[in-house]
């Protein structure tokens, strides 16, 4: 596997990043009025844990990560 160079100012060359950022914006940031940095940190951490441990992953055959993985998060 080789590292690919992405031109500065060309985020569309990395579809995974653009897709993730769009979903984050639509599902969290556009729906919330964040009053402080602490509130933003708490909401983002809650979403990160859900995204990585509870949400079904297509790469796992639409199953949730194993219980062992849940204990690591």
Automatic annotation (TrEMBL):
InterPro entries named among the record's database cross-references: Integrase_cat-core (IPR001584), RNaseH-like_sf (IPR012337), RNaseH_sf (IPR036397)
Taxonomy, superkingdom: Bacteria
Name of the protein in question: Integrase catalytic domain-containing protein
SUPFAM superfamilies xref list: Ribonuclease H-like
Domain Integrase catalytic: 2-65
Pfam families to which the protein is assigned, alphabetical: rve_3 (PF13683)
GO BP annotations listed: DNA integration
Source organism of this protein record: Pseudobythopirellula maris
GO MF entries: nucleic acid binding
């Amino acid at each position: 596997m080789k590292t690919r160079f992405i031109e500065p100012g060309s985020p569309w060359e990395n579809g995974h990043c653009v897709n993730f950022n769009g979903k984050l914006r639509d599902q969290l940031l556009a729906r919330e009025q964040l009053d402080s940095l602490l509130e933003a940190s708490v909401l983002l951490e809650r979403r990160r844990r859900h995204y990585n441990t509870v949400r079904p992953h297509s790469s796992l055959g639409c199953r949730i990560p194993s219980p062992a993985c849940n204990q690591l998060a």
